[in-house]
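User: Sequence recovery, please. Input:
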């Protein structure tokens, strides 16, 4: 086993169903829970950060939407809804979980505390970190990187629909090739969109490897935590 503790970053869109218009699809929630349960059974401590894009995406005032601060606050609340839904799905298959939020919501979840989170993880409880960083102007990528550093995760796993980072967009360029490994400096110099700048800087400063992989590929999550060649690893090694 390569990793003892990981932070998994999921986009909110993976929980919704665009065909039916449901923000939270029961089947998709169940599938996500089963994947997390599989890795937990391997002895891996798992923290999760889920985005809120399936429920709300902010629009600028010029487009008739909310202002940025209000929009970001609504987005953070959407991540709490997703975390509660995923926690419920985990509970249905017997996986203990806890939702921890960046701002106080005592009737719904615990306030995030790094020591408490580590205690829960070590006790076999899956922790879902919601509410982003608790501040506007920061993405859920940044929230994931922050929580990964605070719980001393061995790696930040970015779940996507693509099996890694490519030299170009593989959907547009058939000659694009996947990087098996990148160092932080190369990723920056080539302007590869691994994570947003703030999140990337947090991982680089705290020597947290980032692994970008296709979460929907059978067995991919298990192979990543086992240290097998899956996705793209971004770290400080040249």
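Assistant: Recovered sequence (238 residues):
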């Amino acid at each position: 086993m390569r990793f003892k503790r990981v932070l998994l970053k999921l986009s909110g869109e993976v929980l919704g169903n665009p065909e039916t218009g449901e923000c939270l699809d029961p089947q998709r929630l169940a599938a996500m829970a089963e994947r997390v349960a599989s890795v937990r059974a391997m002895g891996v401590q798992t923290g999760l950060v889920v985005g809120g894009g399936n429920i709300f995406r902010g629009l600028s005032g010029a487009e008739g939407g909310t202002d940025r601060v209000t929009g970001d606050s609504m987005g953070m609340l959407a991540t709490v809804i997703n975390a509660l839904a995923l926690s419920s799905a985990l509970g249905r298959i017997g996986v203990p979980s806890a939702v921890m939020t960046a701002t106080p919501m005592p009737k719904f979840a615990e306030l995030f505390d790094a020591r408490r989170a580590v205690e829960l993880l070590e006790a076999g409880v899956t922790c879902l970190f919601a509410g982003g960083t608790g501040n506007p102007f920061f993405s859920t990528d940044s929230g994931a990187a922050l929580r990964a550093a605070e719980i001393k995760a061995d790696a930040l796993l970015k779940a996507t629909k693509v099996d890694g980072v490519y030299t170009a967009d593989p959907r547009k360029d058939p000659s694009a090739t996947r990087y098996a490994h990148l160092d932080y400096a190369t990723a920056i110099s080539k302007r590869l969109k691994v994570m947003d700048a703030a999140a990337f800087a947090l991982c680089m400063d705290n020597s947290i490897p980032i692994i970008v992989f296709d979460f929907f590929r059978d067995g991919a999550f298990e192979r990543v935590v086992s240290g097998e060649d899956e996705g793209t690893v971004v770290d400080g090694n040249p």
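The chain has one domain: 5-235.
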